[in-house]
Amino acid sequence: MNKSVCLIPARGGSKRLPRKNARKLAGHPLVAYTIMAATESGCFDSVVVSSDDKEILDIAAQYGAQIDVRPEYLAGDTIKATQVLDEFLKRPENQEKWDSICMCLPTCPLRTAQHLIDAMNIFKANKSEIPFLVGVTKYEFPPQLAMTLNEEGTVVTPNSPAAYLNTRSQDNTPTYHPNGSVYLATTEAYLEKSTFFAEKMLAHILPAEASLDIDYEYQLDIIEGFLNHKKQGELN
Question: Model-level pTM?
Answer without folding.
Answer: 0.92
